[in-house]
Amino acid sequence: MNPDVPPTVNHIFVDFENVQEIDPAVIGRTSVRFTLLAGPRNTKLDITVVKGLLSHPDAAQLIQLNASGKNALDFALAYYVGRAVIGDPTGRFHIVSKDKGFDPLVEHLRLKNIQAFRHDSFVALDLARSVKVKASPAVPSRSKKKPKAMVKVSTSRLDELAAKTLDHLRQATTKPPKSLQKLVSHLGTHLGKKITASEVPGLVDSLRSDGYLTIDEKGAVTYLLESR
Q1: Domains of the chain
Q2: DSSP β-bridge partners for residue 13
Q3: Can you spell out the DSSP letters for 79-135?
Q4: Cα 211 versus chain centre, distance
Q5: 140-152 per-position pLDDT tens digit
Q6: What is the pTM of this model?
Q7: What is the number of other CB atoms lying within 10 angstroms of the CB of residue 208?
């Protein structure tokens, strides 16, 4: 191993609604970032896990959602995975959950040359494992127009979702979600089958990039919903 090259960071995301048996030895390990996501009904946590979280605040965090609902935690977990990928695209990303609904997200990340995995339990978790990601095929110079068309379709879909979201937020009779967690859950519920968990991070980032909302370090959301 080249001492000048930093070790690969393993980012672990635990779906605590689905997997309650946690290996506390993983928390605090070198080059591990640990995120435990719990639902509003998950009120009991092993004391050894709590000690591990408190002892390594820079490398471990507990996120408890206030909002409940179908797939609420799934959408939140997908958001945090997406944010971590942006910050460390060369890392490995592990989702610990028995929920096979995360498999399309894992496959999508692999198509983007990201090392991503889903594990049914901590017994199956292998931090040293690698996967051969599917690199995008080389495009001949005479066929350059094809990928441009694909990007345009993807952007058009994102614009459509953003427009629907803005219309909904502007016309809502109640105040919009004040936290990022609640916003992610709200978008998943409102848009339903029109959006997948892997698309929520892109939608939120699009609204933020276009200046319709800001998100501070604590996850508080401020809205700027006037027409642009």
Answers
A1: 10-119 (3.40.50.1010), 144-223 (1.10.10.10)
A2: 35, 95
A3: HHHHHHHHH-TTSEEEEE-S-GGGHHHHHHHHHTT-EEEEESSSSS--TT------P
A4: 21
A5: 444 444 443 333 3
A6: 0.62
A7: 13
